[in-house]
From TrEMBL:
<feature type="region of interest" description="Disordered">
    <location>
        <begin position="15"/>
        <end position="53"/>
    </location>
</feature>
<dbReference type="InterPro" id="IPR032854">
    <property type="entry name" value="ALKBH3"/>
</dbReference>
<dbReference type="GO" id="GO:0006307">
    <property type="term" value="P:DNA alkylation repair"/>
</dbReference>
<dbReference type="InterPro" id="IPR027450">
    <property type="entry name" value="AlkB-like"/>
</dbReference>
<protein>
    <recommendedName>
        <fullName>Fe2OG dioxygenase domain-containing protein</fullName>
    </recommendedName>
</protein>
<dbReference type="GO" id="GO:0051213">
    <property type="term" value="F:dioxygenase activity"/>
</dbReference>
<dbReference type="InterPro" id="IPR005123">
    <property type="entry name" value="Oxoglu/Fe-dep_dioxygenase_dom"/>
</dbReference>
<feature type="compositionally biased region" description="Low complexity">
    <location>
        <begin position="120"/>
        <end position="130"/>
    </location>
</feature>
<feature type="domain" description="Fe2OG dioxygenase">
    <location>
        <begin position="247"/>
        <end position="354"/>
    </location>
</feature>
<dbReference type="InterPro" id="IPR037151">
    <property type="entry name" value="AlkB-like_sf"/>
</dbReference>
<dbReference type="Pfam" id="PF13532">
    <property type="entry name" value="2OG-FeII_Oxy_2"/>
</dbReference>
<feature type="compositionally biased region" description="Polar residues">
    <location>
        <begin position="99"/>
        <end position="119"/>
    </location>
</feature>
<feature type="region of interest" description="Disordered">
    <location>
        <begin position="99"/>
        <end position="138"/>
    </location>
</feature>
Length: 427
């Protein structure tokens, strides 16, 4: 057997960073058998008695990149090497600077296989040959819905609402936005990514348990405004064509005042929306660019795609996008003024906050607060982890548990213990 360092190097030379699973729109129907096999294979590898040794480097880096999104892949690779290929040691080094290792216990399943049946019931589009992605450092602008569908897991409907409803909604939300807290205070992105903009959460029904985001207890969500409810009904009808079980129950409304407001590259937390969530964004006012980047970046696909989002367009991030791509609204030098909103853009990101992912089932973290649900890049596996990194307390406590899914991709709740079932990486 090769020593770990040699194995790591060897892996770097070959298919380094190539995502193992293609469950996004292009790949899902291509080879479901491979998908399943791969998932099972890596589970078996991961929990081997020899610790991490049989888990391949790609998966290790994908997992670490998901756990520590602000650390570059090169740095992760270095630290992983210095930790003799141990994920746990690497994560602990990043989290606390300590390297104490515990022997892994023999394997047991991480029980994420029930996701397979959940995924198989989601609608997917037909397979298309993957076109060449933009090279590193370059941006490919996609100006038509057909090109967007060909290159990305997004769908763009350039005109969604009747014009008068779009205008009424924009006017209503411009008025609403005068009461949005300034950037930084209860800003859902402020600690993770560059996010000079304002956002507020809305839900269809009042929450009985507070929502958390990045360790902060959020203010109670607001109720949908009348025009938002009308628009949500129409979005829901469309949503059903992609996810028949889904409902529109929440919306994060973002307000960008001028070209120097935006949001940096990020993925949306899955804590309340679950794996493979679909998010529909209605854009109002000024046209802005929406940029996306496949994750983790590879030597042949680290470029960026730009999609232009005009007033009254509906952009759909399809199932699997949060598991495979980051998105952003980049800052720009200038915008074309909109006749109603001037230089402001409002984006309503309609979401299905699932009943079975309510805040009451979010597992608690070792250092207080609640954990966040994230995918290993590729969506092969999911885990709950400390969100301390986002609370400005370094990398957090490094608390990490594998997610366990029941039927329909829902978390498994242990009634007796009164908490959501999670699994240790050494179980
Ligand atoms: O403004 C947008 O279109 C995207 C906003 C966003 O990324 C989010 O709400 O998570
Ligand atoms: Fe987002």
């Amino acid at each position: 057997m090769l020593p770990v360092k040699k194995k790591l190097r060897k892996s770097l030379d070959s298919s380094f960073f190539e995502p193992k699973l293609q469950r996004d729109r292009r790949g899902s129907s291509a080879d479901p058998g491979t998908t399943k096999g791969d998932a099972e294979g890596s589970t078996a590898e991961y929990v081997s008695e020899e610790g991490d040794e049989r888990l391949d480097t790609d998966t290790k880096i994908a997992l670490l990149a998901s756990l520590h999104p602000s650390v570059s892949t090169a740095a992760l690779m270095d630290i992983l090497l210095s930790a003799d290929g141990s994920i746990k040691a690497t994560s602990q080094l990043l989290a606390t600077g300590q390297t104490t290792l515990q022997a892994r216990k023999p394997p047991s399943s991480t029980n994420q296989s029930s996701l397979e049946s959940f995924i198989s019931t989601q609608s997917t589009s037909t397979t298309a040959a993957a076109p060449k992605p933009p090279p590193k450092g370059q941006t490919m602008h996609l100006y038509t819905p057909a090109l967007i569908a060909l290159h990305t897991p997004c769908i763009l409907h350039p005109t969604f609402l009747l014009p008068h409803l779009a205008t009424a909604l924009l006017q209503e939300l411009l008025q609403e936005s005068t009461t949005f807290p300034p950037p930084g205070k209860f800003n859902l992105f402020s600690r993770t990514v560059q996010s000079p903009h304002r956002s507020v959460m809305y839900t269809t029904t009042p929450a009985t348990t507070p929502y958390y985001y990045q360790g902060i207890t959020l203010p109670p969500p607001r109720a949908f405004t009348p025009s938002m409810s009308t628009a949500a009904g129409l979005v829901e009808k469309y949503f059903h064509t992609l996810e028949p079980r889904g409902r529109i129950t929440a919306a994060l409304v973002n307000c960008y005042s001028g070209p120097q407001q935006g949001v940096g590259f990020h993925t949306d937390a899955l804590t309340y929306i679950g794996p493979r969530a679909i998010i529909c964004t209605l854009s109002l006012g000024v046209t802005r660019e929406f940029r996306i980047q496949k994750q983790p970046p590879t030597s042949h696909s680290s470029g960026t795609y730009a999609i232009h989002l005009p007033h009254n367009s509906l952009l759909v991030m399809t199932a699997g996008m949060q598991e495979n791509w980051k998105h952003s609204i980049p800052l720009v030098q200038r915008v074309d003024r909109h006749e109603v909103s001037g230089d402001v853009r409002i984006a309503i990101t309609f979401r299905w906050y699932r009943d079975d992912y309510g805040p009451e089932v979010t597992p608690a973290c070792g250092c207080g607060g609640r954990m966040v649900l994230r995918p290993v890049w590729g969506g092969e596996k999911y885990f709950w982890s400390c969100d301390g990194e986002y609370r400005g307390v370094g990398q957090g406590c490094g608390y990490f548990k594998w997610a366990v899914f029941g039927e329909g991709g829902r978390p498994v709740f242990d009634e007796e213990k009164g908490k959501t079932v999670v699994r240790d990486d050494n179980e």
